[in-house]
Amino acid sequence: MEEKNEVFSYTYSASQQAEIKGIREKYMPPTEEEDKMERLRRLDRSVTKTGTAVSIIVGVISTLVFGVGMCCTMVWEGLMLPGIVIGVVGIVGIVSAYPLYTYVTKKQRERVAPEIMRLSDELMK
Fold first, then answer.
1. Any idea what DSSP says for residue 76?
2. What is the pLDDT of residue 12?
């Protein structure tokens, strides 16, 4: 009997090649410049993430407090005045969420600015 050595060959399309390269690059060790660039991106993202998280927490809690105040005034008899006070406290919290975001973001930028400036100077050389 005769042996047949048939070989099957297949090439991937350009989009699949790009996807394969992208996956492969995830597992390769980063170069020093890529590592610095990733650290710069991470620091920049962390500035706004902190402010966003704080303002969302304050906004959600304030909205719930406002809802309790509405329940006091509309559902439970005899709690009209406490409900109004609780609702006003909730409204103040809701209104203060955005100024709190800008304040926290500003403070985070001041804290991270020296490191970002150092990394950006190194990368621009």
1. S
2. 64
3-class SS of residue 123: helix
Closest CA to 88 of 73, 63, 66: 66
**Distance separating alpha carbons of residues 42 and 45, to the nearest angstrom:** 5
Place of tokens 């005899």: 78
Given its phi and psi angles, is residue 7 left (phi above 0), alpha (psi -120 to 50 degrees) or beta?
Answer: beta
Cα atoms in the 13 Å half-sphere on the side-chain side of 78: 0
Burial of 82 (0-12, 13-18, 19+ CB in 10 A): middle
- Given a cut of 90, whether residue 23 has pLDDT beyond it is no
